[in-house]
Amino acid sequence: METSAPPASERRHWKGNARREYPACRLSFPQKTRSYKLPLTDKFGRAITDLRISITDRCNYKCVYCRTGNEGAVYGELPFGDYLRMARVLVSLGITKVRITGGEPLLRKGVVDFVRELAVLRSAKGGSLDIAITTNGHLLADMAQPLKDAGLNRVTVSMDAVDPDRFARITRVPGGFDHVLAGMRAARDCGLGPVKVNCVLMRGFNEDQIVPFGMFAREERVIVRFIEFMPLEEDRVWAPETVITLDEILTRMAEYRPLIEIPHAHSETARRYRFEDGIGEIGIIAPVSHPFCGHCSRIRITSDGKIRTCLFSVWDHDLHELMRRGASDDDLAHFIRQVVSRKEQRHHIGEPDFVPASRTMVHIGG
Ligand code: GTP
Ligand code: 5AD
C-alpha cells in the first residue's frame, strides 16, 4: 500500500522530502504464503519488540506545548477489532510490549474490553504481553481498577506541573490537577505500577517544577520522568532554546539532593536515577541532547490504522487500507516486514536538514 501524505489540515507543517530522500513504500500482496519465524528487524539490525497503538487523536486537554487550542481531532478511529487484528499479527512477528496511546485513550469507550482482548494474546515465545497505557489521568480514578482487572500491567500519567494553578495554565482546563492526582494514586494503589509520571519541560513554562517533582516522586512513590521538549507540537513553538536538557535537569536536581544513576535497558527511553538516600526514582528522557535512536525498538499504529516507523516520520504506511482490501494475515505480515525494514535510522532534530514530522504528537500517540 502506498505511503500517504498528511491531510490538508496538517500540511502546513509538511515540507515534503525537499532535502532528504524518503522512498515511498509501494507494496503489493505477496504471491504466496510465507512463514514468519524471524523477529521483526529493520535494516540497521534493530529488533522491533515495542508497539504503540493510538486509539483516538481526541484529547480533553489542550496542553500549550502540544496543541494550538483550536484544532480538534483530525484523523479517524477504527473499530477495536481492527486494532486487535493488527496487534495479533504484530505479536506473531515478535512484539512483546503494547502501549495504548492517544490523544487521550481513556476517552474511547470500550478501552477496558480492548485491554482484556489484548491480554489474551501471547508473544511468539508464548509469554504474556507487557500492556501499558499512557494517559493524561483525568478519567483514570474510576478506570484504574477495571483496567487492572482486564489485564493492564502499567500506567504512565502525563503531568507537567505539581502546582495546580500552573497545571491548569498548561493544560488549559480548569481544576484538572485533582482528578489527575486521584487517577495516578488509584493506578498506583491497585498495582498498575511502577506508575510513571511524564513531565515535558519547556523553558519559561515549568522548569521551576523540577525540584518539586523530585519531592513528588519521593512522597508519592512514583517514577517521575522529565522529557526534553521535541518539535512535535501543533504551534511550531519549538526552538533549541526552549529545551531543558538532561544536563540542566541533573544540575537542578542535584542542588536539591544527590542522585545516583542506575542502569537502564538498552531500548529504554529514560536514563534512570535514584536519590542517594534510596528514596525515590526519577528518569530523564533526552531525545534532543542524548538521542536513543540507535536502540529504538518501537513502531506505532495511528488511530486511523497507519504504521509509523518513527515519531519523526514524514510518511506513514496504510495498514488499514490493506485490511479493507481483504488482505490475509500473511499479507499484513509481509507488508509490516517491508515497512519495518525501512525504519528511519534516526531523527534529525536541531539539524539544518530537519523536516517536520507529517503529524504532530497528539495525532501520532506518544
Ligand atoms: P516504558 O519503557 O514501557 O515504561 O515506556 P516508555 O518510556 O517507552 O513510555 P512512554 O510512552 O511514557 O514514552 C515516554 C516518552 O518518550 C514519550 O512520550 C516520548 O516523548 C518519548 N519517546 C518515546 N518513544 C520515542 C521515540 O521513539 N523517539 C523519540 N524521540 N522519543 C520517544
Ligand atoms: N515533546 C516531548 N514530549 C511530548 N509529549 C507531547 N508532546 C511532546 C513534545 N512535543 C508527551 C506528552 C505525554 C506523551 C504522550 O508525550 O506529555 O507524556
What features would you describe in this structure?
This protein has a single domain, classed as Aldolase class I (TIM Barrel, Alpha-Beta Barrel). The chain is 28% helix and 16% strand. The chain has ten helices and 13 strands. The protein has helices at residues 80-92, 111-120, 140-150, 164-171, 176-189, 210-220, 246-256, 319-324, 329-341, 361-364, and strands spanning 3-4, 50-54, 97-101, 130-135, 154-158, 196-201, 223-228, 259-262, 270-275, 281-285, 298-301, 306-308, 316-318. β6 (196-201), α6 (210-220) and β7 (223-228) form a beta-alpha-beta unit. α3 runs parallel beside α5. The protein is globular and about 55 Å long. Bound molecules: guanosine-5'-triphosphate (GTP) and 5'-deoxyadenosine (5AD). 5'-deoxyadenosine is lined by residues 65-66, 134, 158, 198, 200, 227, 229-230, 232-233, 361, 366.
CATH domain class: Alpha Beta
* Shape, per Cα inertia axes: globular
H-E order: EEHEHEHEHHEHEHEEEEEEHHH
What is the CA-atom radius of gyration, in angstroms? 20 Å
- Poorly predicted ranges (pLDDT <50, ≥5 residues)? 1-36
In CATH, the architecture is Alpha-Beta Barrel
Using the coordinates shown, work out and report the CATH topology: TIM Barrel
Mean pLDDT score: 91
Please report the number of helical segments: 10
Distance between the termini: 25 Å
